Write the structure tokens for this entry.
Amino acid sequence: MITFNYYTIMLLLLSGILVLVFDVKIYAKANLTREKKGALILGWLNIVLAGLSYICYFIYDKWFWK
């Protein structure tokens, strides 16, 4: 079975970390509170989606694909 799930997980995780590290810091220095809050939400959303995707794929691979 060919899947691109691991690439999707890595892209979501990496983009979430980069948003949290760089964008939030830039918006905080510029005193842009609304943009900072949006970047925080999107960064954590990417990380949570990466985790959920990994967990769902693990469950699918171990219990449903044999």
About this structure: Residues 10 and 50 are 7 Å apart (CA to CA).
